Every structure is written in C-alpha cells, then in structure tokens.
C-alpha cells in the first residue's frame, strides 16, 4: 500500500483559497518560470519547482477530493488532475446525471470509504488527498502519512483553511523536504504516529 499524502498550495497564513473559493495569487508560481510543468506547456515553473513537483505527480495513483472541489472544477472534465489515474470524490450525492460513467471518478460516502477505495485503486502508488475540509477530516482521522505544501508568499487574511476544520493539536516531523522555487517554497513533513 502506498503513502497517503495531504497536499495543496497554501498561503503563508494557511489558506488554500479565499472566501469565494478563488486561489487568487496562490497559483502564480505555476506560470512564472520557463520549464513546462504539464504536458501541454500551459504551466511553466522554475527548474527547482519542476524537479520537485513533476516526480511527485508521477507517484500519484489516486486523488481524493470533496464534492465541493469536484463541482468547482467541473470534475476537470473527467480527467484526473496533476497525475494519477483515478479520483475518489467524497460526497453524499450521486455523480451528476450527465457524468460520463467511463471517467475514472468514483463517488463514495465518508472519508474511511474514500481512503479504502483510493488505496485499492492506487495499489503501491501514492494516495494524494487534497487539503481543505475533506483533507482535514482525513488528517484528523489519522489516515495521512505525510503533509506536502507549496507555500506561496501571499497573505489571504481569511478563506478556506489548509487543514479545514481541524482544531486539535497534531505534531509533524521534519520538514524532510525544503525546496525554494520561484515565489514558492515546497515543504514536506511526516506525520507523527
């Protein structure tokens, strides 16, 4: 079984989006370099960010997201984002009526069921858990092995928190990885067991 890693871009003050679910300048680092990060060359980053991010994308087998993120992104038009072959959507509702049943998206209720399905689909590869409300629930349940964050030099002041509604203290080890990109700091921490 592969690792479960909670991951997202985050502001210095701990937010993954503003109150209107917009990342604003958090994603600027995806477009401020000269090395193509994605296959179509739309995102261009520094060499350091590429060397850190692209191999991680290659390790992802499955990504877990909440229904809110799925709806905001229109399910990425049925294509899993940033690596991985499958997406598990935590939701109390069924897939949209017009959703392509052949798309590699799986709709499940509850974080435990989502993690079980994601691990089954990922095998020995990484289960990537999107930070935010669902990620925070998975983290609080003790199902996360590692926390990765791309810290952008932005203070949003308020918005959607990286760890969602987690209010209890949790200890992390490290950081094990500290890489400076162009206007982004890539960090990785192991979760204490």
TrEMBL record:
Pfam families: RibD_C
Species this protein is from: Nocardiopsis coralli
Domain of life: Bacteria
Gene3D superfamilies per record: Dihydrofolate Reductase, subunit A
Ranges for domain Bacterial bifunctional deaminase-reductase C-terminal: 10-169
Designated name of the protein: Dihydrofolate reductase family protein
Alphabetized InterPro entries for the sequence: DHFR-like_dom_sf, RibDG_C, Riboflavin_Biosynth_HTPR
């Amino acid at each position: 079984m592969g690792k479960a890693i909670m991951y997202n871009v985050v502001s210095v003050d701990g937010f993954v989006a503003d109150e209107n679910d917009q990342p604003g300048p958090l994603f600027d680092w995806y477009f401020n370099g000269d090395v193509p990060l994605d296959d179509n060359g739309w995102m261009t980053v520094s060499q350091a960010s590429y060397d850190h991010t692209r191999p991680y994308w290659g390790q992802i087998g499955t990504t877990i997201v909440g229904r809110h993120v799925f709806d905001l992104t229109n399910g990425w038009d049925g294509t899993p984002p940033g690596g991985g072959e499958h997406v598990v959507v935590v939701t109390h509702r069924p897939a949209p009526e017009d959703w392509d049943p052949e798309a590699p998206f799986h709709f499940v209720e509850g974080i435990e069921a989502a993690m079980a399905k994601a691990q089954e689909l990922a095998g020995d590869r990484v289960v990537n858990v999107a930070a935010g409300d669902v990620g925070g629930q998975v983290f609080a349940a003790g199902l996360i092995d590692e926390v990765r964050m791309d810290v952008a030099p932005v203070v949003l002041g308020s918005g959607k928190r990286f760890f969602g509604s987690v209010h209890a203290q949790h200890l992390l080890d490290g950081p094990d990885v500290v890489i400076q990109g162009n206007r982004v700091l890539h960090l990785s921490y192991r979760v204490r067991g």
